[in-house]
Specification:
alpha/beta, single chain, disordered N terminus, 1318 residues, 6-stranded mixed sheet
Length: 1318
């Protein structure tokens, strides 16, 4: 059952609402909740709560007048298109009967003319039906997309907390797609198919009710078979995806964390884990093939049996002269054929309804959820009006914010009091610093001021007015916000900054960028302010993103500025400049600043500092006053790296030049390529070179296809058996056509009808039984071959990926999502080539050969005419197959831009709300829908024309063939039986060629995947082990000699002529601004990359002479953002050293200072993390996460705090007892208390080992034996902290404000970590 946690009852801190089922909540809640998911009265009348579906009429509630006209016309056209098929059966039956008429030429000619008239009517109706319904679906779909996003953007933050923002975009996209699919062409198809059923039923009953009732007795069998094939088509893809899900999860985890996998030599472990799970995937694929073979066999069995039974029973009606009441005469061939065709069409049309009806039913369910959200807007708007929309005139606005006895619980965590009776006045024009340990309620204050939440009790006032009564848009225009993790949108830097103020001039944007110290790096970018930041700002470094976010916050010149760790990602120089800008703006504009900080240097000059502990205000005062108290704040200061105080009037110069390659450093550490905007474009090739390239590609493609079939032939017996069965299967339709031609004339031979019909019936039964067996065997055999080929390809591809060097993963084409898609879907596409297309092609060839043999054997004249029509028949069948698969895929691609906007808006809702950018986002979204809507109209016209054309061709072909058959009989004396055998054997074969295409995957897509897969398998990694590696015993001496390096995707050098020495057992620090090359040194030591020039020596031997895995086993690596895998604590610590005992794991955890939190089973999910099922929350007690070392850490360690993850990463690194330890910003993201614990662990593991530490914070590195200072990729200073401080050079400029107050007294016991006062 899905549950949702109700919000705590307001103004009563002791009462909580018990969880209730979501469905019950939706049925009973009439007043609303924090979710705002309350339906209007009209909506409740439309919605069937008990089934979670809306009515059919409610599906079209957003149709306007034009849509309603289209719907009516579409219904009429659909009925017309559906009636056409059964009507043709009347003319077809009369044409067959006309061959025995006194004037056969005239009788058949009349029916041919009727068929031509019918063709004209059907082509118009079918075309209009497709056009009208496709248009309706797209038009209403666009409206609903807009209304849905508009409603979502008006939701309260609690709604996003409950519905998991990271899952919302996928959920919303899926809902809208299902809705739009079910209100468009699918409705038209259902109308057409129902009309076909009703018309066929009526015609069959009218033209011969006795015979029709006999035929209708076979209806359940036909409907069951048709439904079975529909289930098979959908079941295969779904079960294959589910079966591969676990494998895909392993692959995604490993490829995303490829540096961790390589650093701990876990490639073989990941490969083994992946391959073990592939066995289940292979079994599922084989079962799917057998199931599909059974489904296809059943449909073939049913068709043949129904044909045989129909003619067999009809022959008895003719033989015994059963009276037909319509014509007041006995049944003849014409009537039997008419009734049979009409009844058969009616029965098979029922089976065709199932997949279309399923889509409509899914649309009704999706509409239930969509309307629920849309209808809640009225409630949200009503609540806002009830609260009030007061605005304060500018001349009266002061900005005094007062918290009065405020207590607060997050609705998703109603058992945790975040603020407890908090009272505080934030005075206008003053800066207030807020500090405290993690979870003390600091960020909650910011969110309450932003009105993301309302207090559970107490009140917040602005200039004496209740904050909840102020107009929310006006209020947020007064407030600027910069968060710790800045959110950027996938657009230009200019557009990102412009979110701060709609319609800002370029001059204002540049001024804001200058105040945020962002203008320098922006100007160095190739496209300047028009540089696209990438998804979530992926093309910028952390510091660059933060500066853009600060510029956005400053652009609107807010009266109140909220800073939540706003400078945490900046180096010291940039931070000081930005802090200076804040101070200047505060003075010039009387701006109030509320700043949250872990790094106390950012708030030490604040007018007031408040200290929170467990949601309670413990201390307040200035920096000096709080230090003198010598309690909480003073203790926090002692834990800090540095007590920096800005000396009034003194500004430190920037350290070095901020290089653009900070982008490359950041991206190379993660998934994507460094700086896509800076990658040099490939030069234009000449025509001759292009031709050579195309020839090479074609040659490679042929080679890859040969390799694929060679792989298939490894399973020779199964493959040969499948080919033989495919040849036999290809004979089904020609022989069925031959029997149909025989029956058509045998029913008109009164003297020998019984014997001939009995033989014909036996023939149908033989085909039915044979096809059931052949289909199972053929699909099973091809499935066996395909599943083995797919497994082999996946194994080889995954192994090939995990042997590539890290630089290969930096390339744009090799990002994890692409590689995971290739493993999952690319190999599945190739599975389709082996399993389906090969069999389909063999069947087609077999069918053509057999049909030609039969056609020319019985009537070469008619065979030649039919051959001329075969391309048209094949095209028609193909068009109809595509029609039933749907044209919606054409427009799916066009909606990608709108989906991206929706995704960013939902994921980054707080940012959108904070800047009141809902209308801007909605306009961008609406604009992005114009192209899909325009294209959908064109697609609707094309779809209508194609479907109408298909109906026209098939009617014209039938009319023409009947005419030529009778003409040859009358004028050339040809036997009509032979003519019909030739015609129908070829016609049935031609139709099967087109129909079989619907079972075949896109062959072009499959061969594209094949090219990509074999292309990867052919590549060789650039970073490899030597053939004869050294066996040197390593002590840990490291030497860089004139090292020069650039990343594979960039043109500029990150390191230039770098040289330094590190002695065994030394602790060495590497410092410098972002982009100076610090982390690059760490990666080169791990041999993630190889250098172009110079040497890196380990104990005097070039590291290229060491076996890569042996080298990496000597190194312990702790990155800035440690990657943990979705398994237990013990298995994460043992990662890379899987034979470790529990005792060894516990020892490593003890050294890493991790034992306490492991044994105490601390449960510290981040703020806002919610555990939910598909619809609501789950209490943590309902989730079995284990205890102690068996406790699961969640995906990427999501169930642990930052400090806990870092300590496990340290334990993992130390478990192998490495000679060398590499620490890359291992404590930069931690609060003071956590950092102290982690730093203690780092110091412990560094003892007796060569340690290389990369850090911004001085406290992390001041005890180092040697410090190397990097600038512009070069080592510019070397020495101890004291030596570098005395130089007053680059190091001093970088850490100057921290060093100003460092004491040189001998009494170290009186010193704080980084320059504490006496």
């Amino acid at each position: 059952m899905d549950y949702i946690a109700l919000p705590r009852l307001r103004n009563n801190p002791t009462i909580y609402a018990r969880p209730i089922p979501i469905n019950s909540m939706k049925e009973n809640d009439s007043k609303g909740s924090d979710k705002g998911d309350v339906k209007s009265a009209d909506a409740k009348n439309e919605i069937k709560d008990n089934k979670n579906r809306v009515s059919m009429f409610a599906l079209f509630r957003f149709a306007d007048a034009r849509d309603k006209v289209y719907i009516v016309l579409g219904l009429i056209a659909g009925v017309g298109a559906g009636v056409g098929g059964p009507l043709r059966s009347v003319f077809q039956g009369k044409s067959i009967g006309g061959f025995t008429d006194e004037d056969p030429m005239e009788a058949v000619k009349d029916q041919v003319v009727n068929m031509l008239y019918l063709a004209a009517g059907v082509v118009v109706c079918a075309g209009l039906m497709e056009y009208f319904w496709t248009s309706v679906g797209e038009r209403i779909g666009v409206k609903v997309r807009t209304l849905y996003l508009q409603s979502v953007l008006k939701k309260e933050v609690t709604w996003f907390d409950i519905n998991r923002p990271q899952e919302l975009p996928t959920k919303i996209s899926s809902l809208i797609t299902k809705y739009q699919t079910g209100i468009g062409e699918k409705v038209g198809k259902v109308v057409m198919t129902l009309s076909m059923f009703l018309a066929g039923l009526v015609i069959a009953l009218v033209y011969g009710w006795q015979l029709a009732l006999v035929f209708l007795g076979l209806t359940p069998l036909i409907v069951l078979a048709a439904h079975f094939i529909s289930i098979s088509n959908t079941r295969g893809a779904e079960t294959a995806k589910r079966a591969y899900a676990k494998c895909g999860g392993y692959a995604e985890e490993a490829i995303t964390a490829v540096r961790t996998v390589y650093a701990f030599c876990a490639e073989e472990f990941e490969q083994s884990k992946y391959m073990n799970e592939l066995g289940n995937t292979q079994k599922t694929a084989l079962n799917n093939s057998l199931f599909h073979g059974l489904a296809v066999g059943l449909i073939s069995f049913t068709m043949s049996l129904c044909h045989g039974l129909g003619y067999f029973i009809g022959s008895f009606f003719i033989e015994h002269e059963v009276h037909n009441h319509l014509y007041d005469k006995a049944y003849d061939t014409s009537l039997v054929m008419t009734v049979f065709f009409a009844a058969l069409m009616a029965m098979f049309s029922l089976g065709m309804i199932a997949p279309q009806a399923k889509s409509i039913d899914e649309a009704r369910m999706a509409a239930y959820d969509i309307y629920d959200v849309i209808d809640s807007v009225a409630t949200v708007d009503k609540k806002e009006k009830e609260r009030g929309n007061i605005t304060i005139p500018p001349e009266q606005f002061k900005g005094l914010i007062e918290f009065k006895n405020v207590s607060f619980y997050y609705p998703t965590r109603p058992d945790v009091k975040v603020l407890d009776n908090f009272s505080m006045a934030f005075e206008p024009g003053k800066m207030v610093g807020v500090c405290g340990e993690t979870g003390s309620g600091k960020s909650t204050i910011i969110q309450l001021i932003e009105r993301f939440y309302s207090p559970s009790s107490g009140v917040i006032t602005v200039d004496g007015i209740d904050l909840n009564t102020l107009d929310i848009k006006w209020w947020r225009s007064m407030v600027g916000y910069v968060g710790q993790e800045p959110v950027l949108f996938n657009t230009s830097i200019r557009a990102n900054i412009e979110y701060g103020k709609e319609g800002a001039t370029m001059e204002e944007i540049e001024q804001a960028a200058a105040q945020a110290n962002a203008i320098e790096f922006i100007k160095k970018l190739k496209d300047g302010y028009e540089t696209v930041t990438g998804s979530e700002g992926s093309q910028l470094s952390g510091g660059q993103k933060q500066r853009v976010a600060i510029a956005r916050g400053l652009l609107k010149r807010p009266r109140i500025l909220l800073l939540d760790e706003a400078t945490s990602a900046l180096d010291g120089s940039s931070e000081r400049k930005v802090q200076h800008s804040f101070a200047k703006l505060q003075k010039e504009n009387s701006m109030s600043i509320i700043s949250i900080a872990h790094r106390l240097t950012t708030i030490q000059n604040a007018d007031k500092i408040i200290v929170l502990h467990d949601g309670v205000l413990k201390e307040e005062g200035t920096d000096k006053e709080l230090r003198e108290l010598n309690t909480i704040y003073a203790n926090l200061c002692r834990l800090q790296d540095c007590q920096a105080e800005e000396v009034e009037g003194k500004e430190m110069e920037a350290f070095g030049q901020q290089r653009n390659r900070s982008t490359s450093r950041r991206l190379s550490l993660h998934n994507g390529p460094p700086g896509l905007n800076d990658v040099t474009e490939a030069p234009q090739l000449s025509k001759e070179e292009q031709e050579k390239q195309m020839a090479l590609i074609e040659e490679k493609s042929k080679n890859y296809r040969s390799q694929l079939w060679a792989e298939s032939l490894k399973h020779k017996k199964a493959f040969i058996g499948a080919v033989v069965l495919s040849v036999l299967a290809g004979g089904q339709m020609p022989f069925t056509g031959m029997l149909f031609g025989m029956v058509s004339m045998d029913l008109q031979d009164p003297d020998d009808m019984r014997r001939k019909i009995n033989l014909d019936f036996m023939g149908y039964c033989i085909i039915a039984v044979c096809m059931l067996a052949i289909s199972i065997g053929m699909f099973g055999s091809f499935g066996y071959v395909a599943s083995n080929v797919t497994r082999t390809l996946r194994e080889r591809l995954y192994n090939g990926i995990l042997r590539m060097d890290v630089g290969w993963f930096d390339l744009p084409s090799n990002i994890p999502s692409n590689l995971n898609t290739l493993l999952a879907e690319g190999t599945e596409n190739i599975n389709g080539v082996v399993r389906m297309i090969s069999g389909t092609m063999i069947q087609c060839i077999s069918a053509i050969v057999i049909a030609l043999a039969l056609g020319f054997a019985f009537s070469w004249k008619m065979a030649l005419i039919v051959l001329g029509c075969v391309p048209l028949i094949g095209l028609t069948s193909f068009i109809q197959a595509k029609f039933h698969m749907g044209f919606s895929k054409i427009t799916d691609e066009l909606y990608k831009d709108s989906i991206k906007i929706l995704t960013e808006a939902v994921k980054n809702f707080r940012t959108v709300a904070s800047f009141s950018s809902q209308e801007k986002v909605l306009k961008l979204f609406t604009d992005s829908l114009e192209k899909p809507l325009a294209n959908s109209q064109n697609s609707a016209i094309v779809a209508g024309v194609l479907f109408g054309l298909g109906q026209l061709i098939i009617n014209l072909v039938f009319a023409g063939l009947f005419y030529f058959a009778v003409w040859f009989m009358v004028n050339k004396g040809d036997d009509p039986r032979d003519s019909f055998i030739a015609v129908y054997s070829l016609l049935f074969a031609a139709m099967s060629i087109g129909q079989m295409q619907q079972y075949a995957p896109d062959i072009g897509k499959a061969y594209t995947s094949l090219f990509s897969i074999y292309g990867i398998l052919e590549q060789q990694p650039k970073v490899t082990s030597p053939k004869e590696p050294t066996n040197n015993q390593v002590t840990g001496r490291i030497e860089f000699k004139n090292v020069k390096f650039k990343y594979p995707t960039r043109d500029d050098y990150v390191l230039q002529d770098v040289s330094f020495n590190i002695e065994p057992g030394q602790k060495v620090a590497i410092v410098g601004i972002s982009g100076s090359g610090k982390s690059t040194i760490i990666q080169l030591l791990e041999r993630f990359y190889d250098i172009e020039n110079g040497e890196i020596l380990l104990d005097g031997i070039n590291i290229k002479e060491y076996d890569i895995k042996s080298l990496r086993k000597l190194i312990g690596y702790v990155p800035q953002e440690p990657i943990l895998f979705d398994t237990t604590i013990e298995e994460n610590v043992k990662y890379g050293y899987f034979d470790a005992t529990r005792e060894e794991v516990e020892k490593a955890c003890k050294i890493a200072n991790a034992v306490d939190f492991i044994l105490k089973d601390e449960y510290m999910p981040r703020d806002g993390v919610v555990f939910a099922t598909s619809g609501g929350l789950m209490d943590k007690d309902e989730i079995d996460i284990g205890k102690g070392y068996e406790r699961k850490v969640g995906a990427k360690g999501s169930l642990l705090s930052g400090g806990q993850k870092q300590r496990l990463a340290i334990a993992r690194a130390i478990l192998r007892d490495p000679k060398i330890m590499l620490f890359d910003e291992a404590t930069s993201a931690l609060d003071s208390e956590t950092e102290k614990v982690v730093q203690k662990a780092l110091n412990q593991v560094s003892v007796g080992r060569t340690s290389v530490v990369v850090a911004h914070r001085l406290g992390t590195i001041e005890e180092s034996d040697t410090i190397f200072v990097l600038e512009n990729g070069k080592v510019v200073e070397t020495g101890t902290k004291k030596e570098l401080e005395a130089l007053k050079g680059c190091f001093y400029k970088l850490y100057g404000s921290c060093l100003l107050y460092t004491s040189d007294a001998a009494d170290d016991s009186l010193r704080v970590d980084l320059g504490g006062r006496r």
